Amino acid sequence: MGEFSAEEKEAMKAEAGIAACNFVKDGMKIGIGTGSTVKYTILELGRRIREDGLEISGIPTSEVTEKLSIEQGIPLINWNECSGLDLVIDGADEFDSNLHLIKGGGGALLREKIVAESSAGMVVVADASKQVEVLGTFPLPIEVNPYGWEQTQRRIQAICSGPVVRRGPDYLTDNGNPILDAHFGPVISNPVEMEAQLRSIAGVVEVGLFTNTADVVVLAAPNGCEMIRKENARL
Ligand code: 5RP
């Protein structure tokens, strides 16, 4: 998105984040994603709760999102009182034409995937810079167990032609795990297979490939929002 100013980028994020709220109806239980685009979704849901009396409840995908949701007055629920969600709204770092995603730039991929797999539909909010032909330019975030993470890194390295780099020596996710960013480059042409292959490595907790999960991308561009729907979208 080099061609856009910081203000234009922020305006696009706001547009997508707010437009996604059209999918939210009274009575819904929603998954609340993480990131700088979903932030606008959370602010808009808070506004609708306060001004329009919208009645929803939600499960956040990160501690940052939990804090902002509470500040915005969104009633939160726990997994001990909820076995499924109507909808999740979340961001993405990349998406391809099949709406397969790379996620986890913000480090919340594990909770995001638990929430996405427990939702009856997934809306992704993104700006034009996230749309790619082949996934992998964005380094793929992989959450790993702290035990023997160096060996897990070597095993991932064996299938990744670019560097596999630990995200900061002290960086830990909300779940207390390190993240390895795998620099594949734009070569992940079969993300379903790659997700399965990486998940089969002991020590890998979760992979930032979200395949066959998203139904709709609300894509913000300078001249407005576009909805990209997957064939057989649930929404
Ligand atoms: C966090 C994520 C985010 O949804 C993703 O990084 C996109 O964030 P942003 O909207 O700030 O670009 O996966 O783990």
Key terms for this structure?
13 strands; four-stranded antiparallel β-sheet; 235 residues; six-stranded mixed β-sheet; alpha/beta; Alpha-Beta Plaits; globular
Tell me what the structure shows:
The protein is α/β, with parallel strands linked by helices. It has two domains: 6-129 and 212-223, 3-Layer(aba) Sandwich (Rossmann fold), CATH 3.40.50; 140-206, Alpha-Beta Plaits. Helices cover 28% and strands 23% of the residues. The protein has six helices and 13 strands. The strands form three sheets. A six-stranded mixed sheet has the order 2-1-3-6-12-13, with helices on both faces. Strands 8-9-7-10 form a four-stranded antiparallel sheet. Helix 1 packs across helix 2. The model has no long low-confidence stretch (mean pLDDT 96). It binds ribulose-5-phosphate. The site of ribulose-5-phosphate has 17 residues, from strand 3 and helix 4.
